[in-house]
User: Which sequence fits this backbone?
C-alpha cells in the first residue's frame, strides 16, 4: 500500500453524524446510569467509607455508558462487563507489582496486556483498559489493596452495574438486556 493509500484510510468511510436516538432511549440511559453509579456510590459510602477499600473507580463511568447507553453492543454484555474488569484488574495488579519502578512501562504494559487478555478471553470491554491503568497509576490506597482490587471494586462494582442494567434496561418495550450472557 502506498503512503497516499495509507493516509486515505484515515478519512473514514461514512458521511454525516451518528443517528439520533429517541428521547425515550435518552431517558432510560440516564435513569440506568444514575441508578447504577448511584448504587455503587451509596454502597461505597455506607460500607467502604473510612476503610482502605473503595467501590468506585473512574472506569465504571465508561461501563455505565455501555451498559445503559449502548445496551445491544457486544462490549456491554454481562460476560464483557464483568470479565473485562476482572481480567484487567488482575493484569493491572500484577503489572504494578512487577514494574512499579518504571511507571511509563507499567502503564503501557498494563493497558496493552489487558487488551490482549480481554481479546483472548472474549471479554473485551473498553473500560477494562482503564481498570488496568488505575491499578498502576492509582493512589497509594489503591496500590495497598493489591489483589483485593480485583474483588472490590473490579468484581463487585460491575456486578452492581449489571444488576441495575438487568432491572432498568428491561422496563421499556424497546430495550432488551442482555443480548447474550456468555
Assistant:
Amino acid at each position: 500500500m502506498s503512503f497516499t493509500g495509507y493516509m486515505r484510510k484515515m478519512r473514514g468511510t461514512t458521511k454525516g453524524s451518528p443517528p439520533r436516538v429517541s428521547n425515550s432511549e435518552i431517558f432510560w440511559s440516564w435513569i440506568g446510569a444514575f441508578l447504577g453509579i448511584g448504587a455503587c456510590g451509596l454502597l461505597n459510602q455506607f460500607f467502604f467509607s473510612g476503610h482502605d477499600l473503595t467501590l468506585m473507580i473512574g472506569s465504571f463511568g465508561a461501563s455505565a455508558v455501555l451498559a445503559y447507553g449502548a445496551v445491544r453492543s457486544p462490549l456491554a454484555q454481562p460476560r464483557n462487563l464483568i470479565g473485562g474488569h476482572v481480567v484487567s484488574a488482575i493484569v493491572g495488579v500484577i503489572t504494578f507489582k512487577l514494574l512499579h519502578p518504571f511507571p511509563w512501562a507499567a502503564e503501557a504494559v498494563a493497558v496493552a496486556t489487558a487488551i490482549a487478555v480481554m481479546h483472548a478471553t472474549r471479554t473485551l470491554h473498553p473500560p477494562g483498559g482503564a481498570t488496568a491503568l488505575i491499578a498502576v497509576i492509582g493512589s497509594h490506597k489503591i496500590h495497598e489493596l493489591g489483589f483485593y482490587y480485583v474483588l472490590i471494586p473490579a468484581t463487585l462494582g460491575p456486578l452492581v452495574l449489571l444488576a441495575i442494567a438487568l432491572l432498568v434496561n428491561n422496563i421499556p418495550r424497546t430495550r432488551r438486556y442482555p443480548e447474550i450472557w456468555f
Q: What stands out?
A: The radius of gyration is 18 Å. The CA atoms of residues 22 and 73 lie 17 Å apart. The chain has a mean pLDDT of 95. The chain has one domain: 23-168.
